[in-house]
């Protein structure tokens, strides 16, 4: 497709995944790096390789109805990706594209911004997004700009690490022992309980409010995981669950597990609905409750 647009382009295709063994070798050959990946380990790998090699890193990211773009590592005063995201969020906290979806036009919009920044760097014209994070909101059709300052010491990035273990080193990562202590229930068992006697049961949906509005278990109450993690919803849950059996779900069962571990720190016990909304829809298509 690139050759159809411009036959004078030179294109080198690497039919392999970027990893610790080849990242420095591949990236070293190029002047500017555009990141179009969709996961934290890849972004940290690209960022660190660019810092080590002194390459500008044109960043773009999308999710649902929003996108963001900036330029990292343009010069010695520029921030890098670790200034924006010092540590990855806990695994499962953010919904995947399959769970949350992405508005189809967003890759094009953010990609065009990245292309524009790349052309400006090549031609040395205009003012790049270095030190500024541009955020696009498709629902409000608005842009806003945040100042991003350099706070991370680049000298600390002198070699590539095992990026697959990023989540294991996250201080918010709970131990496997804590997970094993959380009681769980299958979708079929929950359905049987609801069919027999729904009284005395409180079902919490810890996904985002938008996910809850799109599709949810009938009668469930929306309390986002973030509000549980930051403590805002603890007393509310304590109040509304008084005298009731508490069941918690998300899209797959990971965020609900995190929610229950956090609630247990406040002496609030509940049961994790294994498989979450994904499993619920799969097993109840013939007789959906919502």
General description of the model:
The chain is α/β, with parallel strands linked by helices and 290 residues long. It is elongated and about 70 Å long. The longest helix is centred in the middle third of the chain and has 18 residues, at 106-123. A 5-stranded mixed sheet has the order 1-2-3-4-5, sandwiched between helices. The chain has a 5-stranded parallel sheet with strand order 6-10-9-7-8. It contains 13 helices and 10 strands. The chain is 35% helix and 16% strand.
Topology:
Elements (H helix, E strand, L loop, with lengths): L1 H4 L17 H6 L4 E3 L4 H14 L3 E7 L2 E7 L8 H4 L12 H4 L5 H18 L8 E6 L4 E6 L28 H5 L3 E2 L1 H10 L4 E5 L3 H6 L6 E2 L2 H5 L4 H7 L4 E5 L4 H11 L6 E3 L2 H8 L7
Parallel strand pairs: 1-2, 6-10, 7-8, 7-9, 9-10
Antiparallel strand pairs: 2-3, 3-4, 4-5
What brief labels describe this structure?
16% strand; single chain; 13 helices; 290 residues; disordered C terminus; 5-stranded mixed sheet; alpha/beta; elongated; 5-stranded parallel sheet
